[in-house]
Amino acid sequence: MLIGVIADDFTGASDIAVTLASGLPGEGGLHTVQYPGVPDSAAERHVEAGVIALKSRSLPADEAVTQSLAACEWLLAQGCQQIVFKYCSTFDSTDKGNIGPVLDALRQRLEAKRVVVCPAFPAMGRTVYQGHLFVWDKLLNQSGMEHHPVTPMKDADIRRVLQRQSTTPVAHLPWKLVNKGSAVINDQLTQLTETGPQFVVVDALHDEDLIQLGIAVADDRLISGGSAIALALAHNQIRAGRAAGNPQKLAPVAGPAAILVGSCSGATRGQIAEHQKRWAVKAVDIDAVMEDKVTPQQLAEFVFAHQENLPLVYSSGTPDVVAEIQQRYGQQRVSAKLDRLFGDTAQLLVQQGVRRLVVGGGETSGAVVSALQPSSLQVGQEIDPGVPALLAGGDTPVALALKSGNFGRQDFFAHALAVLAGESAAAVGS
């Protein structure tokens, strides 16, 4: 294994996994496998990039640190020379959050003197300029993320957010220098860390900025960012002759399908509304869930009764509705109940024959994969930016798509089921 990734949620793990598997256009990528949690056995020898998906984004800092260090040790034992800490491109982490503590711990374990910090993902409108994170044309704290039910982001200055969490000094590399290319980036990073270890928040406006940054840190032991931080990492390994650029291709999977959605993002609510125009959709009443009046069996019955109509089950709601429900029952209790419901439903669906499963929302994706308990997920083609086709192997292979809340085209759910089956979206819609 050449590159190891520690991701703080399941959709983020899929996001960076497909980046490593795809590589730069015309070059090919790395044979990449995603692991749900820290494996208890060694990786297969042909794996070139291993991505460990943790469910640590909203955990207390000490728990996130413990899990991340365990993931790091396993990756190092597989031979990894470079570790990537992957977090969300909206840097989801309050002042009590864990990005800073996890980075502190990994930096110390790997004895890294410089660690780049760059959540930019230009393809999804996330850019960093003058140390501030933007979502399209809005500062992070004006983008809707300030209302996130678990990690509300009230400050767009990544330098300030990180320094409030971390014991390591935080520096900044501005775009006017990033724009000069990898050699200048490398020189500037070296200068910034001459006096001691530093986290360096790096500006990035375009994919090319991230490619040049990736080339500049080719030999760094630890780097961090959103999935786009990995754009050039396969290129570095291929150029060095350590990889051939021949990632695997997944076979299509036919059979019964289901869509489970727990995200409350604006993008996901729009995708549900679009799906509902043509296909079968069932809203889960959260009050009924909290009163144990909704069961996995009921949801499975809906799915199999509407197999010809791409059935979708969701618990999504507007920020105001979600806030009111959390106020009434408690945020952790609501999350735990919904995670258990979706996880148990996914397990039951697969037991009863579902072979294609699309999941919306990072927490929901983590709950579903944890319930299915695959030992690993093979990474295939990109369905939409940041969302790959995944295959859980075994006697009855199951194809998965795990979508972060804000990702995906308007008709994502139908499109994803089509890609998993090896069909065109037009064929599914006919």
Could you explain the architecture of this structure?
The protein is of the alpha/beta class and 430 residues long. Helix content is 38%, strand content 20%. The strands form two sheets. It has a 15-stranded mixed β-sheet, with helices on both faces. Strands 6-7-8 form a three-stranded antiparallel β-sheet, with no helix packed on it. Strand 17 (387-392) and strand 18 form a beta hairpin. Helix 6 (182-192) crosses helix 7 (207-216), helix 11 packs across helix 13 (331-351) and helix 12 (319-329) packs across helix 13 (331-351).
Number of helices: 16
Termini separation comes to 43 Å
Let me know the average pLDDT: 93
Enumerate the strands of the largest sheet in spatial order, edge to edge or round the barrel. Answer: 9-10-5-11-4-1-3-2-16-17-18-15-12-14-13
Taking all Cα atoms into account, the compactness measure Rg is 21 Å
Largest sheet: 15 strands, mixed
Q: Stretches where pLDDT falls below 50 for ≥5 residues? A: 425-430
Helix content: 25-40%
